[in-house]
Amino acid sequence: MYLRAFSYDDDIIFYFDRYGNKYVAKGGSLAWRTNNPGLVPLHAMPTLRSIGACGQIAIFSSLQQGERALNHWLHCKKYRRSSLIAVAKHYAPDDPENYLKKLCRLTRLKDTIALSSFSKKQFQRLIWGIKQLAGYSSTGDEQFRLLPKITTRFYSEKAGIETYLVGSDQFLTKNEAIRWVDTHQLDAITVRKNNGTTYLRSRPGHHLHKIHLTQKNYGKDLGFEVIVREIGTKKPNQCIWAFINGIWNSKESALESASQVSASVEGELVWSLINDTKIWPIGDIIESLAFKVGIKSKVIHMAVKFFKFLIKLSLDGSNHPPIVIIVHSQGAMISKLASTYLSPQQRQQLRFFTFGGWAFIPPGMYHQETHNFLSPYDIVAKSGSPDISLFLLQIEEGKRRGLKESDVIEGMITEEEDFYLDTRDPATREAFRKQRRERYLQLMKKASNVTLLYEHAAGPFEHSFGRACYQKKLKEILQKYKTRVS
């Protein structure tokens, strides 16, 4: 239901729904654009309940509302007591006779009969005839659509980037976005600063029909929410490096971790998703537990935009540089949930490398080089994915004793068989062993891109991103991609 409407000019009508969404109606006839099939005047009757005006013509929320208004208007005393000539004089004051002939020819109504004598069917024919003469018929160029909004602005002076995410998938440069505003394809406004420069902003709720404002008229400049930080310097042909930190990270500690990523590639530009601690430490803990049961907070939706921005950067690059995303702790769970909003083609462009992840990024759904790393002493990572972590630890322990992977699995099954079963029936025990083998086969698939980092493990609590085992592997990965691109 549309609550308000404004005419931008004679050819453009803006509609607004109860949620503040903006729609544009253009093309077609004035009667079509205003939902006013009889071109009923704005002040014809106080009970017509129009939602706006285009000049002296009322705008209605729907065609049905416009038809009811026309019907109601024709039942007022001025017309009900008169014949069709009174209607003709309203619509064609300079040549009412000609209008009357056209109306009677269309409707087969007699021009001498008072409207009060019309049957319900005759009145419907009259309304239909007025609609036709008012131009309420398809011309083929009618356009009515919801205007998308700017959801995020990505700006980097270092990288020379200013791009706008429109809706959920469309990226526009600043000039493209301004052109969209000027051609009524985008629900935003351009603001002229006092120094003469122009910038884009979301439309404030109280500005309904203007698309160009001065800085003074715009009011307080709230801008767009910043969702990424940049660390380092943009260098030619570099990879697209990205980082997402975990819980209990202030802005300073998150920047420190992102700086470690940048330092590993000699100060190249790294994009870091903002995931600062909310209410230390309770907010982060609650948020992480919510992720585990599928509740998605604001940072998940921020991460979706972040990933789409990184993909945009890669597609726009001259050599389509690879996207390498380093994530730590809670950042892995954020990445896993956010990437479910991406298409399979988009996910395949993302190379995730998790360190001590609260969740593991599964194989198959993402770029084949995606991998997870954890220390055997990392309690957070092990509690986040206990089945896979325990399985890998048992496999590794068996290998250290000189056993094959298959022998370790069979040994684990035997222990479970003795613990869970109290029968010696061969068929029952074999069915149990078969079921457990299938389970471990599934665990092997899930763990195919997970590696334990025993080297440089310090213990007993190894979760910090700055720990030696994680930093060594981080540098190996980044140097491999840096060498590949350069």
Task: From the structure above, extract its key features.
486 residues, alpha/beta, Rossmann fold, 7-stranded mixed sheet, 4-stranded antiparallel sheet, elongated
Describe the structure.
- With 486 residues, this protein is of the alpha/beta class.
- It has three domains: 2-133, no CATH class; 148-218, no CATH class; 228-485, Rossmann fold, CATH 3.40.50.
- The chain is 41% helix and 19% strand.
- The protein has 18 helices and 19 strands.
- The radius of gyration is 34 Å and the shape is elongated.
Shape: elongated
| Nearest-integer average pLDDT | 90
Strand percentage lies at 15-25%
What name does CATH use for the topology of the largest domain? Answer: Rossmann fold
Task: Kindly report the spatial arrangement of strands forming the biggest sheet.
Answer: 13-15-14-16-17-18-19
CATH secondary-structure class of the largest domain: Alpha Beta
CATH-scheme architecture of the largest domain: 3-Layer(aba) Sandwich
Kindly summarize this structure in a few lines:
The protein is an alpha/beta fold and 486 residues long. It has 18 helices and 19 strands.
Outline the secondary-structure elements.
Blueprint: E1 2-9, E2 12-17, E3 22-26, H1 30-33, E4 52-54, E5 57-59, H2 63-74, H3 77-80, H4 84-91, H5 96-107, H6 120-133, E6 143-146, E7 150-156, E8 161-166, E9 170-173, H7 174-182, E10 188-192, E11 198-202, E12 212-214, H8 215-218, E13 228-231, E14 240-244, H9 251-264, E15 270-273, H10 282-292, H11 298-316, E16 323-328, H12 330-338, H13 344-347, E17 350-355, E18 371-374, H14 379-384, H15 386-400, H16 405-420, H17 426-446, E19 450-452, H18 468-485
Parallel strand pairs: 10-12, 14-15, 14-16, 16-17, 17-18, 18-19
Antiparallel strand pairs: 1-2, 2-3, 3-6, 4-5, 7-8, 8-9, 10-11, 13-15
